[in-house]
Amino acid sequence: MNKNSTPPSECSEKGSACSNCSSATCSEKAVTGAQNKVKHSIVVMSGKGGVGKSTVAVNLAMALTAEGYKTGLLDIDIHGPSIPTMLNLQNTRALSEGKLISPIEIGDLKIMSIAFLLDNARDAVIWRGPMKAGVIGQFLTDVNWGELDYLVIDSPPGTGDEPLSVCQQIKGPFSALIVTTPQEVAAADVRKSIDFCNRLNVNIVGIVENMSGFVCPGCNCETHIFSSGGGEKTANEFGVSFLGKIPIDPAIGVASDKGSAFVISQSKTPVAKAFLQIVSQITEACADKCNACCATAE
Ligand code: ADP
Question: N or C: at which end does the chain have fewer Cβ atoms within 10 angstroms?
Answer without folding.
Answer: C
